[in-house]
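Our platform keeps sequence and structure together, in a single record for each protein. Because each token names a local backbone shape, the row as a whole describes the fold. One such record is reproduced below, unchanged from the form in which we store it:
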Amino acid sequence: MPLNRQLYEAVRRAILTKQLHAGSRLPSTRSLAVDLEVSRNTVLLAFEQLLGEGYLETRSGSGTFVANSVPDELLRTGTRRGGPAAAATGRRPVARRARALPATVMTTSDKRRAFEPALPALDLFPIQLWTRLIAKQWSRNGPELLDSLAYGDAAGHARLRTAIAQYVGAARGVACEASQVIVTNGLQHSLEMICRVLLEPGESVWFEEPGYPAARSALAAAGAQVVLVPVDAKGLDVTAGLAKSATPRLIYVTPSHQFPLGVTMPVARRLQLLDAARRGDAWILEDDYDGDYRHRTAPVPAIHGLDTDGRVIYLGSFSKSLFPALRLGYLIVPPAVVETFMRARALAGRTLPAIDQLVVADFIELGHFERHIRRMRAAYRERQEALVQSAAKHLAGLAVVEPTDAGMHSLAWLEKIDDAAASREAAEENLEAAPLSAFCGEVKLPDALVLGYGAVTPRQIRVATEALGRALERARKRRARF
């Protein structure tokens, strides 16, 4: 095939397979001839053919570009010839489990906005101290940290596992040995591993309604039949759960500070839940995502401490207590399934950097973690008070923000305003105000916005609340027009 024809075919194929997108600028004929080591006439002949068929277009003084529209006939020709479009078609392009994935995918922005929930006070993190701990590890163990053996076994570095076991025992009432701690890459990874070890596709899982969408998606992706169980003033309604599914395989709960409603499960309900799990031969997944943060009382001990039957799996994470980019979480599993979880963790790959594990271990062992948690409790109490006061001033007649005793977020209960519309208007003010309805699957709750105050200073809260007031006013006016 002549060189000009080869070049024509290559460019045409790149356009039809979207390797070259509409509007893309092509090199000049002179530079392309130099790059390909062919004569300029060869390139001119190829470009003239492509221009004549409508693949390319010229713009005076700007150069040659891929045409904004290619005839449908040519697109069909490209599909018949093969390529990505053809490769993506088929009778069963993906697995059945993948086809069952939820349609809603949570996305994140590259910029943080006021009121984003579940985000800690990054402005108060002790960066200089953290930097010194990192430097200490490199100076003491530099060459060893470069070796894969420094990762420790598949369940995580021994020092970190020991530090975690000691901390949760003292602070959260979790009775465990270091051997029961499995270090993970966070909540999603923890849930994926639990489902791999304990769940058969199609088995039922109780899930809080409303609840954390990412956790619900992870369970559904594992093939679980997610049973939405309503949450009342005492947390997950065990009686309602039994009426829907008497023998669930897993029960996912956030008892210390339910997300997003913020209620705390009392001891009587916890004992009822443990009894239901025992009778139905179920595992309880206790997600203690921010259990350390009680503003006015001591932290409520974990359900794990009440478990005498080895049915509770405790899920923890450093994303809320330290910082999200750390991507370190952990499971505390009953002794009977430790070995199986160890094998599952080894199969998943040893992807946890040794330096991060050792620095966190230092942070806990030297007492910095406990001091940091105490400081955060005081900061979050102050920030919540700023939010409540600012809401009373700027959201009067629009929403009510009630103080809570725990966590890093509060609910703004709206007055005759649709929460989805309010959230969209808040985004126009560069605010992240998630609608409560986004956390619901079946139940219809009163309209509210989930407002995170953890990562917002009191001054920023006052400014952001004033902006939220403007957004809610617009949402109310638009609703009135319709």
About this structure: The chain has three domains: 3-87, 125-366, 371-481.
